[in-house]
Prior knowledge:
Chain A is of the alpha+beta class and about 400 residues long. Helix content of chain A is about 50%, strand content about 15%.
Amino acid sequence: MDFAFDARTEELRGTLLEFMDSHIYPAEPVFDEQLEQRTDPWSAPPIVDELKAEARKRGLWNFFLPGEHGAGLTNLQYAPLAEITGRSPHLAPIALNCAAPDTGNMEVLAMFGTEQQRKQWLQPLLDGEIRSAFAMTEPDVASSDARNISTSIKRDGDSYVINGRKFYITGAMNPKCQIFIVMGKTDPDAEPHRQQSQILVPRGTPGLTVERGMKVFGYDDSSHGGHAEVVFDNVRVPAENLIAEEGDGFAIAQARLGPGRIHHCMRSIGVAERAVEMMCRRTLGRSTFGRPIADQGVVQDWIAESRVRIEQLRLLVLKTAWLMDTVGNRGAHTEIQSIKIATPLTVEWILDKAIQAHGAGGLSQDFPLAEMWASIRTLRFADGPDEVHKRSLARRELRQYK
Amino acid sequence: MDFAFDARTEELRGTLLEFMDSHIYPAEPVFDEQLEQRTDPWSAPPIVDELKAEARKRGLWNFFLPGEHGAGLTNLQYAPLAEITGRSPHLAPIALNCAAPDTGNMEVLAMFGTEQQRKQWLQPLLDGEIRSAFAMTEPDVASSDARNISTSIKRDGDSYVINGRKFYITGAMNPKCQIFIVMGKTDPDAEPHRQQSQILVPRGTPGLTVERGMKVFGYDDSSHGGHAEVVFDNVRVPAENLIAEEGDGFAIAQARLGPGRIHHCMRSIGVAERAVEMMCRRTLGRSTFGRPIADQGVVQDWIAESRVRIEQLRLLVLKTAWLMDTVGNRGAHTEIQSIKIATPLTVEWILDKAIQAHGAGGLSQDFPLAEMWASIRTLRFADGPDEVHKRSLARRELRQYK
Amino acid sequence: MDFAFDARTEELRGTLLEFMDSHIYPAEPVFDEQLEQRTDPWSAPPIVDELKAEARKRGLWNFFLPGEHGAGLTNLQYAPLAEITGRSPHLAPIALNCAAPDTGNMEVLAMFGTEQQRKQWLQPLLDGEIRSAFAMTEPDVASSDARNISTSIKRDGDSYVINGRKFYITGAMNPKCQIFIVMGKTDPDAEPHRQQSQILVPRGTPGLTVERGMKVFGYDDSSHGGHAEVVFDNVRVPAENLIAEEGDGFAIAQARLGPGRIHHCMRSIGVAERAVEMMCRRTLGRSTFGRPIADQGVVQDWIAESRVRIEQLRLLVLKTAWLMDTVGNRGAHTEIQSIKIATPLTVEWILDKAIQAHGAGGLSQDFPLAEMWASIRTLRFADGPDEVHKRSLARRELRQYK
Amino acid sequence: MDFAFDARTEELRGTLLEFMDSHIYPAEPVFDEQLEQRTDPWSAPPIVDELKAEARKRGLWNFFLPGEHGAGLTNLQYAPLAEITGRSPHLAPIALNCAAPDTGNMEVLAMFGTEQQRKQWLQPLLDGEIRSAFAMTEPDVASSDARNISTSIKRDGDSYVINGRKFYITGAMNPKCQIFIVMGKTDPDAEPHRQQSQILVPRGTPGLTVERGMKVFGYDDSSHGGHAEVVFDNVRVPAENLIAEEGDGFAIAQARLGPGRIHHCMRSIGVAERAVEMMCRRTLGRSTFGRPIADQGVVQDWIAESRVRIEQLRLLVLKTAWLMDTVGNRGAHTEIQSIKIATPLTVEWILDKAIQAHGAGGLSQDFPLAEMWASIRTLRFADGPDEVHKRSLARRELRQYK
């Protein structure tokens, strides 16, 4: 259980930290300005492509992806780098081509895709030329129970025909989002974990309609393609678009979730660190009743609690990364669920205090805190609500004593 | 300490509940639709004026205002009515001409305005023909210490000249907002509580620029005029626009805050009740793993806790209203602070659970929960952050033992 | 919903407050001293009987019992008096003959007892001459589900024969405890709510063994007779000792619990008030780093939170009392459960902060805070764990929407 | 940052785990029985000495002490062993001669003692032949500010004369406690951190009176010598009893606290693990309403939360141990404070839930949970209240941004 940074991590950290200072932080106000001036309301501002080019030039690229297709880092090597990118969550992950949901989709294609699928979709994703979406959640059922998913994927000759409605499909409003991985039922009569399959649907396929952007606490998240409601009305794709075999959908989803969760958690810690820094700076810089706000006992309590909580959380994320590297995702199941449960609540709490320390400004577009909060809040649902994970974790704990 | 509804309250409750069912709830989807189709991005949809006409016809009008100018209700009479309007917070309060910040501004004009000021500004506000703003918070200082407010109001012959910058000026983006009550310093050398004054500034006065809408967790709150950043650059108004005397600003602000706080709290309880109802309906209507979500122990725990907390909170709000009626705002100081502290945290907690019970939809524009949450969150700052009120309350408690 | 004190309440409050100052508070150190010097380790010190005589002389007697047998107060009249007694929980309730479990037992005898039962047991209890116990909880089953109770009460000719084991039988270690009301099964085959009966068992009946005192966080609570483990081994009592009819046990228990819960809650608020007073006095009287501890922001936060929470809780208890008086215990079911859930957590929190404010002394026998905490902690189990009450309350809430 | 167990740790863990199973757990009921039968109310039962002999035979001895005098383990090696001993906190630490306050006192003597002091006091402590006490906290001042400590230590010829009153002096009621390390002021006029000194006072020195045992939530902790109130009335000891130099008291206390805190935290995690195990076993073994309590969602939530919190906490304790080993106590300051803050609250929460899961029994002497809770609660004061540590930690965090 060695969490020390190895030589490669140290080197990449150095390059990345330098890049944050020289490019990412200075780009933040530019990004905000360009957002206001966009013509397409769902596209990323041009600065994003510039940052991607700069990052790639420095070798800061595809860190998330192990193996030959990506940077080949272990989870433990990636963790501290992902944390750093979390400090500027709108710019740094995408600049390094490490933004969700592309990351998960690339993992799926790298692990399960055919050569043809990889060539057609993985490669342009790896090159940051297109973006992608993962269509699982449905508006009409409690998707936390995967068996509820009702979109149908029916074989019809050499094709599959897809019917259903999905929502909160992140990134799908962006016209650069060229490919959807869709989860649906190929066999409603199979045993529960073999009913689902995943299939590739290119944007523009007839019958696929991106209806509208769903909001998250008022944010449309348009700079990274929003969260779409999407309708599949007799959408027909060639049979070879199926990923792996019929009935593999649940297993593929599981394989995808482990890394996805840990990436979210790593970045969230970066968010928390930035919030603490902002809370310190703000309360040192403003005074009430003749003394800096930072002198107040209650504010110091927030800062101390934040530090104590972050330190614990980071170590658990690192341990989880190390376990995934050494015993695999299945062996790290309890830890993956644990960080999934612990991270949003911890970081939400810290952001809430940082917002409070900023006064009304903390709620506004002038500071990133409120938007960070909303984004973190979604993690209590994403990949299943906390409550489902807690129940599953508890049952595993109880099983030892039966 | 009698909180029972008297005959007038009962009668008005009956009329109001009928109006909610027949007009307000059915108007909610219409309102959302019209919002999408507005030409002016900061105006209320036309349904609002229709609802106002209907409400006024039924005598559901200006409940908030005691005395001859308003409905003449006591706080205790108004409390249960305000709670009901809180169930549809975007429509019901404005329909009854009981929406902030007009309510506070009308109170100030009724209490402190000259006959001329009342004729010119109070009357059209009472008639719901114009709207108004209250300009106190400043972006560059911690406004929780009123002494920090730095906007200057300088006497110059028969005029006052105003210079400063304000933000989070609710309602000011709305072109119907015709009058600003501005708080600023007339005498920086006076003793702390006599430095401030309040003055009337009509929209359109040269030098007054409404610069932009501030957001609250991504919401621009455009349907009720948003929250503006406003600049006063050598804004000149006649000396008779001053409200009361030079140096009275702090006292006027205090007089305004008591009722404002209790109105917010009353409505917030309505918000909480609606959230509990939605949480119950949703969890009864969706199933996971073969049983309604409402059967889950954790969900039942949320529902029970919500009920227990609401019941306590409502009683404290009622007691506060009763105290304000019987011993005045000063005598109710501890209770006013107590509900100001307790309400947002309690209602936030309930909304958070209701959101969680709704899955991703709970974050979206399809349910009012996320927007309600953001709105309630602002109350932890509005009229001073909780931390300032807690300190003040604790010092009063300690004083008894010195 | 009028919570004002009526004339009788005001008068009794005056007398009681005077009695607290003149007799109860001065008796506290005497009580502690006499406890050390007792010969019987499970008896009350002699000061208790002196206080009882003094209280009775002043008409401060049997406040808890409505109707002809007691003081005839309503719940709403009793509530503020009970709160005052809670400030000195070891002395004031017993001095007024208002201490559990006698109170509940007297209620049961007054409501359900035969003339003979009342003459033999109720009268000496009303006179404060003997004490009593209520034997329901069992060590070997989860008693929160009353159907689990396994003590058997079998008819045999003119007698009933009782077999079983009970624990946490409050007061039973005290030799003055002369009568046990025992809950057990007369008919295991009846429908669930008709299986149980209650029966009177005098101390000294052959087969009844008081085995040992159970502790509560190290306290043996010996001054009020402790909490005994009791064995019933073929205990035979005359058939006329049965209370009401066979199968009425559950209904009697329910009738008993309503008032019992509200008395506990009323007194607990008195405990909380005393804790706040002690917290204020202590933090004003000690300094660290050159300033009184009361100046620290975190301490002020505790004090303010305590005040805000107490005010809400007290009002809910008063409303519950008022409801019990006006619509009966059944109509007040939700409120009785609500105060049962809210009170221990609220008062525990306040006591925890008061302890922390006292430093190590707060844990010790030199201040009543730690013992108060332990006593309040038991309320999260007493009459059923919070979790059972929350579930029941939530189901009633959900039922409205089914 | 490598937390893996090295070979030596693995070997010792194996031996220790075997010893727990073969000797410690079986001794628990014997210990409880012998406690009841003691003649001296403040002595350890004889089983303790037997366990010590057995442990020493196996090389399970003085793990806590680095360097030549002890087992020579690093903090990181000791951590997982200390955790295991925490599972039986009354027996395992003392069996291994690793119980506070002897541990801290041995550290002080090993680091600062003269050869004579080490020979006379350290050696018998290392051999487990005598016990010792550390006398710092005073009843009359807020000891969290060390400058408040008012016991005087005055040089008088070849002696020092000590006057003052101390309380919560752990272990001092035990007649085997032969030596006191006393903290007091040698120079009230020196700069704050140079006023204090530490001095050795043997039991039996004239003027030293052990007055009474202080309780902790009703527990007298008599099996390990209780917590005494001690008076020093012109106690005269030879000048060579001073530890190090005059004015070094504060520095010695600091040196002592680091390891003391981490030992407490390590053991507390063992306490938490045992509580989770007990919670699982109990809820699997009891049923309500026809299903095991472990099936209830709220109980599963407790279990999952407990696991998530323990995992985070343990890692932070391990990191702290590792830091102390690699950069020293000063470099681990933030982490030492962090675990001091986080541990009691986390473990308290888990114990509270485990108690609740046990019903009334959870409060009793039949399960160790309530006593564990009381013991953990004291850690929020021990070595300074959490509030002092949070403030200090926050100020260090803020300093980075000044």
